[in-house]
Amino acid sequence: MKQIFITGHGGPEKLKIQEAPDPTPGEGTLRIRVKASGINFADILARQGLYPDSPKIPCVVGYEVSGTVDAAGKGADESWVGKDVIAMTRFGGYSDVVVVPANQVFECPASLTHEQCAAIPVNYLTAWQLLVVMGSLSKHETVLIHNAGGGVGLAAIDIARHIGARILGTASTGKHAFLKQRGLHEAIDYRMQDWTVELKRLTDGRGVELITDPMGGSHWKRSYKALRSTGRLGMFGISAATESSLFGPLRLLPVALGMPFFHPIPLMNNNRSVFGVNLGHMWHEGHKIRVWMEALLRGVSEGWVRPHVDKAFGFEEAGEAQAYMEARKNIGKVVLRA
């Protein structure tokens, strides 16, 4: 099999392909011949040495794949063999062969390509947890989606559109037309204008009920202040760390120094709440994840879950793929094609 290793901390050139024997499925596991692997911002943070959950270097990252089951281990259902599937991987997804526990495998919807299937797990499960499970968004409310053009952003638009909420989002101007076609009601260019001022204008000074924010640091303070009464702030990333000119873990310093402290008394007095989402820390909640994923796969059949792949790169182009995503060029998902 071929695997893409992070060989050291640094730029995209630290990604190298290495070959190894195909793994043998163990008890309760399935072996998958991978057709597509999803790329997530956590993979970039791992390469830069900014992701504390990453395995020790050298390592193979990747949380999600799509492919075909070609073998079942002892105790696993043999009927999976030959089926096209989506699988969640606890790292190792940047491989053309993976072995995963059978309870982390789902059948691919027939209407989707393998690349589209690989775009579902991390982005849509994160968005589902942010908006539905912990954000409790309703059709009478307004949500602000930061980085609306990213993979989680597009997934959040699909879910909020299905709920019937009013959807606002921040993104660069070049992405606005596409995002409005997807269901965004109002787009804010965070590069050319103060998004907090524009948000006040769009909400008559009230703010919004839910904000999803992957930026981190002092950006969370601004998002919290933009909530109206009963508002919720969902925090799920620290992508601002990649913008620092510092090297390695020092990049986290300005982000950490800028982070807010949420005291319970002001939270009560302001009738606001804050919560965090990290799908990578949900492996012990397999039943919950399965329930959420099954709801999303029903959404595919019903037409409201619409995974969008911006661009697919070959395995040998993994460095280019991450650089493309790191430069915020993508609208939606970036995948590797095995």
| Elements, N to C (H/E) | EEEHEEEEHHEHEHEHEHEHHEHEHE
DSSP helix fraction:
25-40%
Q: Beta-strand percentage?
A: 15-25%
Secondary-structure class: alpha/beta
CATH class of the largest domain equals Alpha Beta
Give the CATH topology of the largest domain. Rossmann fold
Rg, rounded, reads 20 Å
The description of the largest β-sheet is: 7 strands, mixed
Number of strands: 15
**Tally of domains:** 2
Low-confidence stretches: none
Helix tally? 11
Mean residue pLDDT: 95
Query: What is the architecture of the largest domain at the second tier of CATH?
Result: 3-Layer(aba) Sandwich
Measure the end-to-end span: 10 Å
| Overall body shape | globular
Task: Assign the CATH superfamily of the largest domain.
Answer: NAD(P)-binding Rossmann-like Domain
Question: Could you explain how this protein is built, in words?
Answer:
Strands 3, 4, 5, 6, 7, 14 and 15 form a 7-stranded mixed β-sheet that branches. This protein is of the alpha/beta class. Helix 3 (121-133) packs across helix 4 and helix 3 (121-133) crosses helix 10 (286-302). The radius of gyration is 20 Å and the shape is globular. The chain folds into 2 domains: 2-120 and 307-337, Medium-chain alcohol dehydrogenases, catalytic domain (Quinone Oxidoreductase, Chain A, domain 1, Alpha-Beta Complex), CATH 3.90.180.10; 123-279, Rossmann fold. The chain contains 11 helices and 15 strands.
